[in-house]
Amino acid sequence: MALPFFKKSKDKAPPPATRKPAPPATPPEETPPTETLLTMNMGGAGIVVEESSGAPQSPLDEAAILYASGQPEMVETLLKDLLAGGDRRAWHMLLDLYCVQGREKDFEQMAVDYAVRFETSPPVWQGANGSAATKPLQAEAAQLDLPGLLDKNAAAALKEEIGAAPKGATVRIDFSRIAMVDEGGADACAAVLSGARKARRKLQVSGVDSLIALLQDLIRATHSRAAHWLLLLELYQTLGKQEDFENLAVDYAVHFEVSPPSWVAVQAAEVVKVQPAAPQDGALKLSGEITPDNDAALQQFSNYAATHQDVRVDLSQVTRIDYGSVSQVISVLMQCLGSGKTITLRGHNALIHELFRVMGIDQLAQLIPRHRG
């Protein structure tokens, strides 16, 4: 079996091509960065590597190589020029670049454009961990997963979490586990959400649809409690669902013969999908930048691969794989294949994924990137 993949002729990245003014007669020819196409033959004689000259096949290839070479400014310029073409890979690469650089405002603006362009939900902001070059994300706070019973204790934990978050931080609340809501918990939770709204706290919520459905069932009961109605009204207010709020407010006024709460125009919470739990399968988890100067990660990878038949590597916290380190990654993968091992690399950002594709690593391992398609 022959597996083709690319490798640079030198570990050092090629300098970016510079364009010279064209003379009146004939424009000068540009020489693209060279690559080496390696073919690995897994025959009976072992691993045989053949080489031939090649070059990046597309601007996306060039962007991936530039990023691996530590030139993010050029990458951003190149990717912005590619957005009009409608290739989602360019969009994912630029969005992930903003994540790595901690540029949440730029990410959010581009995510809106992405949703309009492709008529689908955009990727969710993911801060980078482990990279010394990454700015700390002041707008991020720890997520609170509320338990199965929403009672006063759960509401108190929610209040504490919101209160402890820095001003301007985005507080993430997961309601997906809630299966029961007692009267005291509903009342306390409504008060916490109301306080967060009045304080103009930024909220991200997940699993809220299931809580809304649960509260709707509770208020349809014969002996429904006002606290459940008020919590549902506060949820509609928090989510910016004015029509649902006003319809329920009318029913509340009729049912309890009292004036309902009034709608207040505020910034709505952002609804995000529940993030699936990371699989506990003994995968090696790497983080930060993998560079020639940071060979500890590569040594971890090599040691792990040598002692596991099913090689699984989680790259979700890796921000960049340096151009000079790719050959070492390929070397480990080739050794694994020569020993009949299976290899899975997963969770990596779009910039790394395109580098893997350019270098032929998609021919050596199963790739499960952060973004599909």
Integer count of domains:
3
Ranges with pLDDT <50 over ≥5 residues?
Answer: 1-12, 17-55, 129-140
Widest sheet, order of strands: 4-6-8-9
Name the structural class.
alpha/beta
Work out the radius of gyration: 26 Å
CATH architecture of the largest domain: 2-Layer Sandwich
- Annotation field: number of helices: 12
Q: What can be said about the biggest beta sheet? A: 4 strands, parallel
Count of DSSP strands: 13
Account of the 3D structure:
The chain has helices spanning 59-68, 72-82, 88-100, 104-118, 152-164, 183-198, 208-219, 226-239, 242-256, 295-307, 326-338, 350-358; strands at residues 2-7, 35-43, 46-54, 140-145, 149-150, 170-174, 180-181, 202-206, 270-271, 284-290, 310-321, 342-346, 366-368. With 373 residues, the chain is an alpha/beta fold. The protein folds into 3 domains: 2-23 and 31-118, no CATH class; 140-271, Transcription Regulator spoIIAA (2-Layer Sandwich), CATH 3.30.750; 284-368, Transcription Regulator spoIIAA. The protein has a 4-stranded parallel beta sheet, covered by helices on one side. Strand 11 (310-321), helix 11 and strand 12 form a beta-alpha-beta unit. The longest helix is centred in the middle third of the chain and has 16 residues, at 183-198.
